[in-house]
Structures are given as structure tokens and as C-alpha cells.
Amino acid sequence: MRVVGLILAGGQGRRMGGRDKAFLMLGGRPLVGHVLARIAPQLEEVAISANGDASRFAPFAVPVLPDACGQMGEGPLAGVLAGLDWARAQGADMLATVPVDLPFLPRDLVARLCAAAAVQVPPGAAVALCGGRRHPTSALWPVAMRDGLASLFAAGERRMQAALSTAAEVRFDVADRGADPFENLNTPEDLARAEARLAGEGAGKGASS
User: Fold this and answer.
1) Backbone angles phi, psi at 66, to 5 degrees
2) Please, what is the end-to-end C-alpha distance for the chain in angstroms?
3) 0.85 exceeded by the pTM?
4) pLDDT digits 0-9 by tens, 81-98
5) pLDDT digits (tens, 9 = 90+) for 142-178
């Protein structure tokens, strides 16, 4: 099973004062850099879903996929559809998606989603579940779902949860000290907590070395 990935970076960051979340700095590195470092080793190829000037992502040397014409600004499901078109062109069977504001995402996310997808016949979608909550932007999408999702989108559906209504759920545990690997950074306060968490992880590594 060939799996490629997509970082969903098309949000408008309203609760961050309209700032581009991908380039919010965390520990001296933009969020998109943190997410790439976590997800790229889990995949054969990675792209970024984003509209606007694609050249701002040039330092990361990965493809940038805008939403299709007529779908721009219609939410993350538009990004998933563009990603599935790209995945199909790469000859992939599956597309893994993660949001750009998830710097602590599990390093075994794709492997565990793939394991859940593989037991379905045919292999189906899978979505992360943590703390009793589904995280639909952290999911695995069969390329074969593309046309069905396009029909759903054309009918006016924009909810990721609805698109993944039949997906297998993969349970992830909250780490020690209540650290949620799927905690999105939506506000300046979230970003400040992530800075403290990152500093704490760095201090813990230093103490154990």
C-alpha cells in the first residue's frame, strides 16, 4: 500500500489575529517545519495544501496544492480533494492528512491509521481518536474515495466528520502529564502553552542524556 501525505495549511487563522498559522514561530521554527519533521519520515512523499503565494513554502521543497477552481476557501475538505487528485497522480493508494497546527502529532500516526485501514475490505478510511474526540483532519483517505467525496462536496457537504462517517477509529492515548498529541494551536494562549511544552521536552531530554 503506497501512502503519501498532505499538510492542511489553508486555514485563515482568525483566532491568531489572521496570521498564517504555518509560519507562526514555535521554538525558533515555523509550525509547518515542526509538522513536516514529524510526518515526513512516516510517508513516501508529502505536499502542503495552501492557497495564495506558493513561493512562501519554497524553503521546505515540497509541492504546494491550491484548492481547485471554484472550491477555494471552502474548508479543509477542498484541500483533501486536491490532495487526493495529487495522490492519484503519484500512483498512491492512500492519502494521510494532518493539520499544520499539530506540532506534537504522534510519530506512529500513519502506521496505526494504515493498520486500521488494512483490515477493512476493501481498505477504507481511518481517523484518529484521542480523549474521546475524533480528529478528522488527522486521517487516512483511500484514493478510491475521491469521486464519492467530490459528489458529497458538490451536494454542499463541507464537514470533515460527515466525509469520514464510516471511517475506522484509531485510539491514541494522552501522554504523561496530560499532554494531548492532537492539541491544535488555535489561539495565542495555545501557542504559549506549546512553547512551554516544547521547552519542557527539551529539558527532559537534556536531563536524560
Assistant:
1) -80, 160
2) 38
3) yes
4) 999 999 999 999 999 999
5) 999 999 999 999 999 999 999 999 999 999 987 655 5
- Of 53, 49, 54, 57, nearest to 6 (Cα)? 49
Question: What gap in Å lies between CA 102 and CA 179, rounded to an integer?
Answer: 12
Residue whose C-alpha is closest to residue 137's, from 184, 174, 175, 171: 184
Separation of alpha carbons 103 and 77, rounded Å = 21
Rounded Cα–Cα distance for residues 179 and 200 (Å): 11
Beta-ladder partners of 133: 130
The amino acid at residue 37 is A
Q: What are phi and psi of 107, to 5 degrees?
A: -75, -10
Contact 6, 138 (CB under 8 A): no
